[in-house]
Design a protein that fits this description.
By secondary structure, this protein is an all-alpha fold. The protein is built from ten helices and two strands; from the N terminus they run E-H-H-H-H-H-H-H-H-E-H-H. The protein has one domain (7-214): Fumarate Reductase Cytochrome B subunit (Up-down Bundle), CATH 1.20.950. It has a two-stranded antiparallel ribbon with strand order 1-2. The longest helix has 28 residues, at 150-177. The protein is elongated, with a radius of gyration of 19 Å. Bound molecules: protoporphyrin IX containing FE (2 copies). Residues 24, 27-28, 31-32, 34-35, 54, 57, 61, 64-65, 135-136, 139-140, 142-143, 157, 160-161, 164, 167-168 line the site of one protoporphyrin IX containing FE.
Length: 215
């Protein structure tokens, strides 16, 4: 039997998300060729040479910057709604974070009514976005180092490295939760096709589901 579906992510949100995912992964692997000599030996042959890896890194950096800006212009309202939700962190989000470890390990738990993004997704939004913005800012300073004071350029190297590690850890956890994790697998289709099953939405995001079905 076909189950009813509800719209979760617009075309522009999906374009921004998957565009960012592809550019993030290419930036990560090209960046890692320069990070440590051991990683360099393993990864550099994939790109031909250090010079090619560095050039790909810079081209991808431009797409990594432009893609979210295009989505922001196309759907400014959706962007504002996302951040309004992220910063409306309340008691139910804290309750969610308390039961989440049990859900993660496969136990059935009652999820307190969540808005469009649950407590964990709100934290992911803040940490990942902040690290990506810092990666971009420090990256451009390193790229055009002659235009900036030497002291600032020096700081940007550790900032770029630390943000890379932080964002990569978040993305690994996030990618697993958004794809193979049994409890949240349906959310992948939300980001892929745009819609999710109504019963999943009602269970995982009751507050949001009630709002969208009412309107
Ligand atoms: C707008 C975004 C970005 C810009 C402008 C940028 C720019 C740069 C530049 C100029 C370098 C110095 C090496 C070179 O000349 O090739 C670099 C290194 C590096 N980048 Fe990026 N980058 C960006 C985003 C990212 C992202 C998203 C990641 C990973 C998630 C990343 C990972 C790295 C790593 C691991 C290094 C090597 C750092 C080291 O040698 O310690 N970058 N980046
Ligand atoms: C293969 C890798 C990835 C998969 C499978 C994936 C999957 C998903 C899914 C299914 C959602 C929607 C969750 C919901 O229903 O609310 C989502 C949201 C999101 N994704 Fe990804 N994603 C991946 C990579 C990335 C990367 C590389 C970034 C950023 C650098 C990112 C940033 C976000 C953000 C900020 C959200 C909204 C907040 C949240 O739901 O956690 N994702 N992702």
């Amino acid at each position: 039997m076909l189950k009813e579906r509800v719209l979760r992510f617009s075309g522009s949100a999906r374009f921004a998300h998957w565009g960012h995912t592809i550019t993030f992964l290419v930036l990560l692997f090209t960046g890692l060729t320069l990070f440590t000599p051991a990683l360099g030996r393993v990864l550099t042959p994939l790109f031909g040479s250090h010079v090619t890896a560095s050039s790909i890194h810079k081209v991808m950096a431009v797409f990594f910057t432009i893609i979210p800006l295009i989505a922001l212009v196309i759907n400014f309202k959706g962007f504002v709604e996302w951040w309004k939700d992220v910063f409306s962190f309340g008691a139910n989000d804290i309750k969610f974070l308390m039961v989440f470890p049990l859900e993660f390990f496969g136990f059935h738990v009652e999820i307190p009514p969540q808005s469009k993004f649950n407590g964990g997704e709100k934290m992911n939004s803040v940490v990942t976005t902040t690290s990506c913005v810092l990666l971009a800012l420090s990256g451009y300073v390193m790229w055009f180092k002659d235009a900036f004071p030497a002291g600032l350029v020096q700081w940007c190297y550790p900032i770029h490295g630390i943000c890379m590690i932080l964002a990569t850890c978040m993305v690994c956890m996030h990618a697993y939760l958004g794809s193979f994790h049994p409890g949240s697998g349906e959310s992948f289709w939300g980001m892929w096709k745009g819609t999710v099953r109504s019963d999943w939405a009602a269970h995982h995001h009751a507050k949001w589901y009630n709002e969208v079905t009412k309107s």
